[in-house]
Design the sequence.
């Protein structure tokens, strides 16, 4: 399952809920304001402990987040990588 | 008619994910043109608006972050950042743009526009305002 989160973890509980539904092999893709969760210095970073996480590169760049500010192990992908993730996962949930 | 009111713009949304941040900035600049006493507060996710180094080329959206640097020229010189909101997000003032204004009364000396204050101090700043615009 691919879980897509597009809301800031400091504004909505979308990420909390998505992570609480995690099953083995699931992947989390953070886009739009969801990418703030992947900043390692933020209080929300720990919510992603033990999760396989990707972020959309265009969205971190727009928000002034350098890759070295991300949690270790987070993958930065482009729109083609987004498509690959959707294709590779039989099921997708967008937690709005 | 020309009574000057104290306008406070409260910003608590991240940029780009929604239109609030950009709309706020536009309204602030319009309000400043009417010679009101304008202040801006950045709390909650609003502190993300001022992160430096924003590059929106991958989003095909306008990068409006350079516009904040023009606020000083519009005599918007009181920009309050809430310390608790910044710290919760793992940010420091060094992560944000350095906004300044030039003081006409002191031979155009360059001064900082940004004041980093606690939530308790923000409560006092709010108490001193006449009108609020929340974004």
Sequence:
């Amino acid at each position: 399952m691919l879980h897509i989160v597009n809301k800031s973890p400091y504004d909505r509980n979308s990420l909390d809920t998505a992570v609480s539904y995690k099953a083995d092999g699931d992947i989390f893709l953070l886009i739009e304001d969801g990418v703030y969760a992947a900043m390692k210095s933020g209080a929300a970073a720990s919510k992603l402990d033990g999760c396989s996480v990707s972020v959309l590169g265009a969205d971190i760049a727009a928000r002034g987040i350098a890759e070295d500010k991300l949690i270790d192990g987070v993958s930065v992908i482009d729109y083609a990588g987004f498509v690959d993730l959707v294709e590779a996962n039989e099921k997708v949930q967008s937690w709005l | 008619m020309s009574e000057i009111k104290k306008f406070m713009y409260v910003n608590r949304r991240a940029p780009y994910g929604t239109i609030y941040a950009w709309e706020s900035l536009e309204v602030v600049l319009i309000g400043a043109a009417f010679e009101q006493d304008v202040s801006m507060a950045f709390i909650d996710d609003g502190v993300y608006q001022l992160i430096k180094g924003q590059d929106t080329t991958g989003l095909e959206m306008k990068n409006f972050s350079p516009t904040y640097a023009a606020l000083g020229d519009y005599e918007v010189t009181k920009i309050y950042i809430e310390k608790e909101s910044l710290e919760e997000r793992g940010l420091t003032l060094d992560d944000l743009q350095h906004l300044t204004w030039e003081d006409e009364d002191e031979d155009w000396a360059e001064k900082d526009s940004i004041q980093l204050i606690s939530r308790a101090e923000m409560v006092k700043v709010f108490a001193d305002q006449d009108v609020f615009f929340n974004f």
